[in-house]
TrEMBL record:
Residues 524-614 form the Sulfatase-modifying factor enzyme-like domain. Residues 1-31, 462-482 are annotated as: Disordered. It comes from the Bacteria. This is Sulfatase-modifying factor enzyme-like domain-containing protein. Pfam families: FGE-sulfatase. InterPro entries: CTDL_fold, Sulfatase_Mod_Factor_Kinase, SUMF_dom, SUMF_sf. One of its GO terms (molecular function) is formylglycine-generating oxidase activity.
Amino acid sequence: MRRSTISTRTTDRHADPDEASTNQIDPLVPRPIDLPATLPLDEPLDPEVGDIAKVFAAPDDPADWPAWRAALARWRAEAHARLRYDGAIYDRAATAWTRSCYSVALIWLWDERLYDRAAGRFDVAGFLAKTRDHGGFDGVVLWHAYPVIGIDDRNQFDFYHDVPGLRDLVAEFQSLGIRIFLDYNPWDTGTRRAPHDDATELALLASELGTDGMFLDTMKEGDSRLVSALLDNRPPQVLEGESRLPNARIVDHQLSWAQWFADSTAPGVQRARWFERRHMTHQTRRWNRDHSDELQSAFMNGTGMLVWDTVFGVWVGWNERDKATLRRMLRVQRVLTTLFVHGEWTPLADASDEAIAAGVYASRFADPSGLTLWTLVNRGDTDFTGDALTATTDGTAWFDLTSGARLGHGTSAPPVTVPARGVAAVLALAGQEPAWLPGLLTAAAADPGAADTTFPARTAARVRPPATSGRPRGVTVRVEGGPRTLPMTYRRRETGSYQGAPYVEEWKPLPPRLHDPRRELLAVTLAEVAVAALEVTAEEFAEFAAATGYRPACENRWSPGTGDGPATMVDLADARAYAAWAGGRLPTEFEWQVAAGSPGFRRATPLVWNWTESEHTDGVTRFVMLKGGSDHESTGSDWYVDGGPRDPSFSLKFLLPGLGLDRSPSIGFRVAWDIR
């Protein structure tokens, strides 16, 4: 493959305007950087604007749309010539799949729909069954380290390398036609250093696991070392930059995840897609409960969606209407990829005055064989039924591909229904029906769609421990039972706290609204308990294991050690097993907090976080509140888990990995006993 003559530069992340502080901006409206760019109709556009625009806004007046389309064509020709663009990477057969990779799911590796914690294994079939109502995925990002990285010295590569059976998981997805992306965290500079530079480590990891691509977290573009290492890897890896991938990097990044793209009233054109028709973007606004804007923009541009229904432990599930819209889109896009990529694309064409007045817009995709497709979107809150298109043809059969209806033959486009805040696709066909058409119509007719926009809320339920059976051992601290009001302090991360999302329908939250210290007052009722004054030691845990023959179901990373320091490298189940042997249980986070404020409560050295009986699950994410802090603290990025000594009121929401990855040298435990 011939390399482009465009120079590759290292991204200056510190000067990135997308990461600017948002404290003076209304979080419910787009930031200036998110707004669509205005493309002049009769003069050149400054490349400093045009080469990084998210969306080119459509003019408000439909009379200006022909001039706008002409300006779009001039802009693309000028940008291609100025950058000496050749697009050779898109000719590679090995990675041509990117142009039809419409729907990608961003999944925490330990999502309980994918990882069966009770069985201790991954369940691809179960995951796909539980997410089938999204229309199926073309790709999956196995997000792995954040938000637990920093709990100890493990680096981002360790959080992949240490997962037993990960290669098999990747292969199983791929056997079903689903491409697998890994996640690269360039900000991970404060953990232990890997033997090679990041680019080499990523290439080795991709070869080891046989993956297909790399999601660049917080990076619009990879630097020259990263690009070369991944594109020339075996198997070759595609790169997906975050947000506004510049024109200069479309040459070697075949995809981009388009976060927080605001659109114009009449749908605009995604700059990256217009610049290179084979480039795939995946739109997302992670905190949204209404995804209709992103879906409509994607459909009008022939591009894809990033389905992200659990943001680092916070459930932000899609409503039934938006899932139905996505299914409608995907059925059309997957069979007509060639048309969307190579057909003649005419943005904002052929919508009737009646339709435009109702907020219904259309784009046209046509090929020389006599096949013409109109993608339609309805910006309004009521269904539109009527003459949406003004197009006329000779001897044409008409079809509604999203409802599965045959609309008959005629020279004029027949009436069609475009659902409120939804989409429709009208096909005009001159000649023989393609082989894929009957199946698509049948599938579309069998899917009635949905109009329900109710948020599918989930509640994280506390896992209740059994009552204790023994008497307290050793020195303990007594916690009086009864109602209390306790302060809870934490750092506001994307993980949220116990319930709900920390941000709803917001544009990009950044400091100081992200990573800021928070304090809440919680009303709790405590049982009367005795909490061990000190953590269980490694020597005590070894005594337990010897006396009982205890071995965990998964021994990966199980290494409790010896000596009088705290027992670490034990997971929650290990700690519970010891506590039950001692006739007790783990203290809840509230019992731990009250005990920690009492005389006699001690912390062993080295200082380690303590497991508590604060395990919660909402059926997708399982987490535990850790208490106490640790001597270990990963520095250099706010994305790391909190470390260092912590006040008793401080709680760390720790998302539970599986297969032993939750075992850490920074986490120990102590025991509590119910007092009857």
